[in-house]
Structure formats: structure tokens, C-alpha cells
Automatic annotation (TrEMBL):
Residues 53-146 form the Methyltransferase type domain. This is SAM-dependent methyltransferase. It is an enzyme of class 2 (transferase). It comes from Sorangium cellulosum (strain So ce56) (Polyangium cellulosum (strain So ce56)). Its EC number is 2.1.-.-. GO terms for molecular function: S-adenosylmethionine-dependent methyltransferase activity.
């Protein structure tokens, strides 16, 4: 089972408000362009797709999606992160950014062809409920693509990055997908690892999963 903590969503918001301007550099070791692009390719999106990026942060995944689809909605609970995302995504005219919590996305039922959430789920207070909310947004045949950390024991992630969960067991993720009504569920290794430096200077690699399911 996934391991939780008493870290709150408020703590996550405070952390991202503080690091928004530096986040693109911080993020570069955690999830690379190659990992992002491989995940997007696995989703199999048509060029006229309308999609959402939940927990878009500074727009890293949205930037990978925008050239490939008709419309991208980027949602994040941090106004500071979205301020940076607005600058990063200024070259795209098909991206709309809005402050919103992942548990309550302001879009109608069955309005999207795909929903993406990269490294967001471990900040969600209730991952199963968040997956249900993402599934609500999908049209029949739409795909949910989540990339996140496997279960790990680096408890300092809670203090340093305000993580609510220390990754997830893939069996739990599969169950949450199935319980939300998704089919053809696959949870496999993403194309790379989350690489960072520990509090004592040690190099740490945490494996990353990609979870795909269709409504």
C-alpha cells in the first residue's frame, strides 16, 4: 500500500509558491523531456484532441502536448506556478491555464479526449478521488495517463518537497483506475527514473510508473 503522511495540501501550495521561479531547473532531474514525450506518445492522441494537464505546474507537460493536439487545459492549485507557466507557454495559442484543485476541475462531464497528471498524484490528499474526478472529464474512449513515483522510502521528500505520499504501489493504482470505471488498464515502467540528491549528498533514483486506462 502507498505510504501517506500528515503533510497537507496547504504545505504543498506553500512549497510550490516558494520554488515557482526555480522549478524548471529543479524539475529537470525528476522528469525529463524524453520521459514526457514517451508518455504522451503512449496515450495515442489524435491531432484534434482536447486534453487537460492536471497539476500542470510551470507547464512542462502542457508544452509537450500543445504542438500535438487542438486544445490543452492546464490546471494547478498554485497561482505562482501558473504565472511561470504563462510565460513558458506564451508561444502557444491553444493552451488555457486556470487555478483549480485536482479534486474539483471546472470542466463538464465527458468533455475531454485525454487527461494527464505528471508527478501530481503524490500531492493529492485522496488519490482515488482524484482519479475519479479525472475520469469524470473523459469522453467515452478517452484516456487517463498518470506518471508518478513508485513506492519509496525517502521520507525527506515530505519535508523538502511537501510530498503527501511516498509514491504508490502499482496494484493500488490499477485498483483505483478500475474502481473509477476505466478499462484496458496498464501500469508499467516509465521511460526513465526520478533522479535527485539526498540530504547527505547521495545520488538517489526512484522508479516512475506510467498508468494508462480508457473510459
Amino acid at each position: 500500500m502507498a505510504t501517506t503522511t500528515t503533510t497537507t495540501k496547504t504545505g504543498s501550495n506553500e512549497y510550490f509558491a516558494e520554488v515557482a521561479e526555480e522549478w524548471d531547473e529543479i524539475r529537470s532531474g525528476y522528469f525529463t523531456e524524453g520521459m514526457r514525450d514517451a508518455a504522451i506518445a503512449q496515450a495515442g492522441l489524435p491531432p484534434d484532441a482536447v486534453v487537460a494537464d492536471i497539476g500542470t505546474g510551470t507547464g512542462f507537460v502542457a508544452a509537450g502536448l500543445a504542438p500535438k493536439v487542438r486544445k490543452v487545459y492546464g490546471f494547478d492549485s498554485s497561482a505562482e506556478m501558473l504565472s511561470v507557466a504563462k510565460k513558458n507557454l506564451a508561444r502557444f495559442d491553444n493552451v488555457a491555464l486556470q487555478v483549480a484543485e485536482g479534486e474539483s476541475i471546472p470542466l463538464p462531464d465527458q468533455s475531454l479526449d485525454a487527461v494527464f497528471a505528471n508527478m501530481y498524484l503524490h500531492h493529492a490528499p485522496d488519490p482515488a478521488a482524484t482519479i475519479r474526478e479525472m475520469t469524470r472529464l473523459l469522453k467515452p474512449g478517452g484516456v487517463l495517463c498518470i506518471t508518478d513515483l513508485d513506492t519509496h522510502t525517502n521520507t525527506w521528500f515530505r519535508e523538502k518537497m511537501a510530498d503527501v505520499w511516498l509514491g504508490f504501489d502499482r496494484t493500488d493504482v490499477k485498483k483505483w483506475y478500475a474502481d473509477a470505471g476505466l478499462q484496458k488498464v496498464e501500469v508499467d515502467c516509465a521511460k526513465g527514473t526520478c533522479d535527485c540528491t539526498g540530504p547527505s549528498g547521495e545520488a538517489i533514483k526512484v522508479t516512475v510508473f506510467i498508468a494508462l486506462g480508457r473510459k
